[in-house]
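Entry:
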Amino acid sequence: MAQWARSCALCHVNGEGGAPRVGHPDEWIARVAQGETALLNHTLEGYNNMPPLGYCMDCEAEDFSALIRFMADGS
């Protein structure tokens, strides 16, 4: 997934800035409990240390939803 590798992975591999890491479902539990809409809004608008759009300037809302599911599921 090229979009993930050049944007999300920058923070979600090592947990930079407190980002929940991919492959660590326990770090996603509280976030997933907020619901997909909240997670998508955080991604689009920025949240805590995450900048708006999470460095993926060519991603659409559908892309972000798929990327969030990918990371939260630990795939």
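The helical segments are 2-12, 29-33, 36-45, 61-73.
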